[in-house]
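It is worth pausing here to work through a concrete case rather than discussing structure prediction in the abstract. The textbook approach is simple: state the sequence, then state the predicted structure, then interpret. We follow exactly that order.
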Amino acid sequence: MSNQTLNKPARKRRGSSKKTANSARAGTYRRQTARIDGRRDGKPLLFGWGGHLTRVQKNRIQSRAAYGFFAAVIILIVGVLIFGIIQQNVLIPNQTIASVNSHNISQDTYRKLLAYNAQDTWNQYSSLLQQQDQLQTKLAAGDPSATTLNNTLTAQIQSVEGNYAQSQLAQASIDQLVEDQLIQQGITRFVQQNPKLASKLEPSNAAISQKLSAFENAFPKGETYNEFLSRDNLSTTDVRADIALELRRTLMQSYLATLLVSPTRQIHLRRIETSTAADATKVLNLLDQNKITWADAAKKYSLDPNSKGTGGDMGWVPPGTGDAAIELWAYAPGRKVNDITTSPLKDSSGTFDIIQILGINPSLAVNATILQDAQANALAHWLSGQRANSSNRFGTPNQTMMTA
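Step two, the predicted structure:
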C-alpha cells in the first residue's frame, strides 16, 4: 500500500480544545460565585423599591439607615436641649414686656427690678416688726410714748404688708420701669436746655454705692445679700441699676419741686368736661355755630360738679395744681387769652374736655398750702402729664409675662 492510501489519524482542532478548556473554566467560575447571600430574592426593601438588590446590599443599606436614624435622634435631642437653654436664657429674658416710644423694656429687666423691690419691701417689713418687738417691755409697763410709737408702727406694717402682695409688687415694678423711661427722656430734654442739670438729675456712683450699702445692711437676721443674689440670679451690677432707677426718681422729684414757686405765672381757665370724644365734639360744634352759650353748655353737658354751675370756670390754675394734660395745653408756648381747644382734649382722668383761656397773669401768688401740696406731688403730676401727652407712645404691658 502506498502511503497515500493509508487512513491518516484524525487531527484534533485547536479551537475545539480551547473551547473545551474555556467551557471547563467557565463552569468552574459559575460554581464558585453562586453564593446564597448574593442572590436576588426579588423582595422589595422599602415602598416597593429594592427588589433588584442582593441580600448583602440590603443588609448594608439597613445598617446605614439604622445608624443614620439613631444619629438623627441624638442630634434632635441635643438640638432641643440647646434650644431650651437659649430660650430660657436669651429669648424669653429679652422679650419685650412693655415699651415707651422707641424703647423696649425686656422681661429680664422687669424680673430683676421685681426681685429687688420684693427684697427691699421684705427688709422694711422685717425692720418694722423688730422695732415693734423691742417696744414690748415698755408697752407692758404702760409707757404712753411707746403706745403712740406702736400705733404708728402698726399702721406702717399694715401698709407694707399691702405693698408686699404679688400683684402690688408686679404693677409697681412695671410702672416704675415705664416711668423711668419718661424720666430719662425728660432729663435729656432738660439737660439740652441747661447742661448743668446733668449732675443734678443723674445719680452719682457714690450715691448709688451708699444706697447699696444701706440695702445690704438691711437684711433680716439669718438672711444675707449674697444669698439674695444667688436665689434670684442677680449681680451687684443689676442691683445698682435698680438703685439708680430709685435715685433718679428722687432727683427728678426734687428738681420739679423747685420749679413750683410763688408768685408765678398763672392761667385762668374754663372747661366743659364730657365722657366721650363724640360728646365733646358735639358741644364744640354747638359753640362754634353759636347755637348755645358757654354757660348753658357747661350746665347741660359738663360732668364737673364744681364748675358746671359757674359756666365751667376753673379759676386761676397755678402750674402743678390742676389736671396735668390740661396744663400741658394751657401752658404751651404761644397761648393767649380766648384761645380754645380746636378738638376734644383727653385729660389725665380719661374724660374729654373743651378748654378756653380767660386770662393770663405773669405773676400771681399761690396759696401756701396749695403750693406745698403741689411741690410734694411734683413728680407724680409731671408723670401724669407725660402719660397723657399724645406725642408719647406706650406699649400695653404684657400681663402674662408679668405673672410668669
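Step three, interpretation. Residues 1-6 have pLDDT under 50 and may be disordered. Strands lie at 96-100, 103-106, 264-274, 313-317, 345-346, 352-364, 394-395.
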